[in-house]
Write a structure and sequence with these properties.
- The structure is a single chain.
- The protein has 2 helices and 5 strands; from the N terminus they run αβββββα.
- With 108 residues, the protein is of the alpha+beta class.
- It has one domain.
- A 5-stranded antiparallel β-sheet has the order 4-3-2-1-5, with no helix packed on it.
- The protein starts with a helix and ends with a helix.
Length: 108
């Protein structure tokens, strides 16, 4: 047996690294409070354990988008769970941009 084969046998194989960011829009949970607060949408990323809050148009000067750690608090202001396609166009586009940014930075 060659030395590199012996070393490979003795070293435990590392488990595959879990991605630090979700890989698609299907892995996120989206909540809509119907506009009772300016940050209408809450988007939770379970595999990354953080969430975003955003308004209908987060890329505008008066828009809102904030990244927060952990799971969102379950209360009446969170609203009901919706499908990503039910978000306002501006919010959905910003979410897609957020996901693409993580892919390009090598965090996926």
């Amino acid at each position: 047996m060659k030395m590199h084969e012996i070393l490979n046998e003795r070293q435990p194989q590392a488990e595959p690294r879990r991605p630090s960011q979700p890989d698609s829009l299907q892995t996120v949970e989206v909540y809509d409070n119907g506009g009772i607060t300016p940050d209408r949408y809450t988007v939770y990323f379970p595999s990354a354990d953080y969430h975003l809050v955003m308004s209908d148009f987060p890329n505008t000067p008066r828009g809102i988008m904030d990244k927060r750690g952990g799971q969102p608090q379950q209360n009446e202001k969170l609203g009901k769970q919706i499908h990503v396609n039910q978000m306002a166009r501006g919010a959905r586009e910003r979410l897609e941009k957020e996901l693409k940014g993580h892919e390009m930075s090598g965090l996926m």
